[in-house]
């Protein structure tokens, strides 16, 4: 008999591969989980859940539009009343855990910025450090904003600040994108060319980074 009791839920972000891996881990803690290898092209995840005392299997399907559906036999309607809130919580938790990992970037950026504010500009090496750290801070900030629109690691881990900015600019207005690119160019001069950083460049990088951080 095909499952006919259905519960649907939209979970933004659940189709990301990191969220799906986390979902498997969380479901496995409370159910015997069998993930289907062969699934229709319009789905990203399909699995069967079993549990001692549960007379029928529970089927969970996740579609590419981020809709989810939990199905089972009408014979276990009373069981589903207890299981569905648990499954709903796990679906949301999988996304929340991955998202919270991303917000760590802001805290790291703030700590680095606090250090940058204390660096003097009168020595060449310290000016170079200011530029490099400002670039790191801006990369963290851009990546954090981008994570609101994508959880794909290939997007968030992209080493090109320009590529990240282009993706972000297609979603929302970006504050001072040219300045962010200019600071990356200053950083590249130091990292790849070994060029010295002049006072004006270090001052520009620090002042700009503080301004952009305060606009969060």
Question: What would the keywords be for this entry?
Answer:
58% helix, Double Stranded RNA Binding Domain, 5 strands, 216 residues, 5-stranded antiparallel beta sheet, elongated
| Biggest sheet features | 5 strands, antiparallel
How many angstroms does the end-to-end distance come to? 54 Å
Contiguous uncertain segments of 5+ residues? none
- The total domain count is 2
- One letter per element, helices H and strands E, the order comes to EHEEEEHHHHHH
Number of helices: 7
Please estimate the helix content.
55-70%
Mean pLDDT: 89
Strand content range: 5-15%
Number of strand elements = 5
Spatial order of the strands forming the largest sheet? 1-5-4-3-2
The whole-angstrom Rg is: 24 Å
What does this molecule look like?
It contains 7 helices and 5 strands. The chain has 216 residues and is of the alpha+beta class. The protein folds into 2 domains: 5-98, Sirohaem synthase, central domain (Double Stranded RNA Binding Domain, 2-Layer Sandwich); 119-214, no CATH class. A hairpin with a 7-residue loop joins strand 2 (32-35) and strand 3. The longest helix has 42 residues, at 77-118. The model has no long low-confidence stretch (mean pLDDT 89).
Please give a quick description of this structure.
With 216 residues, the chain is of the alpha+beta class.
């Amino acid at each position: 008999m095909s499952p006919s009791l259905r519960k649907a839920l939209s979970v933004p972000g659940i189709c990301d591969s990191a969220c799906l891996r986390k979902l498997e881990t969380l479901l496995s803690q409370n159910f015997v989980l069998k993930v289907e290898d062969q699934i229709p092209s319009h789905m990203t995840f399909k699995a069967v859940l079993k549990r001692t005392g549960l007379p029928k299997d529970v089927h969970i399907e996740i579609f590419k539009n981020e809709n989810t559906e939990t199905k089972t036999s009408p014979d276990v309607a009373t069981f589903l009343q207890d299981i569905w809130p648990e499954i709903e919580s796990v679906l949301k938790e999988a996304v929340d855990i991955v998202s919270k990992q991303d917000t760590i970037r802001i805290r790291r950026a703030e700590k680095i910025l606090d250090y940058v504010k204390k660096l003097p500009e009168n020595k060449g090496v310290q000016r170079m450090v200011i530029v490099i750290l400002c670039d790191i801070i801006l990369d963290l900030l851009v990546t954090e904003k981008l994570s609101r629109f994508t959880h794909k690691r290939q997007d968030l881990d992209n080493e090109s600040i320009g590529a990240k900015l282009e993706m972000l600019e297609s979603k929302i207005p970006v504050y001072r994108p040219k300045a962010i690119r200019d600071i990356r160019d200053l950083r590249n001069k130091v990292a790849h060319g070994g060029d010295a950083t002049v006072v004006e460049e270090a001052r520009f990088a620090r002042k700009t980074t503080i301004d952009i951080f305060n606009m969060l």
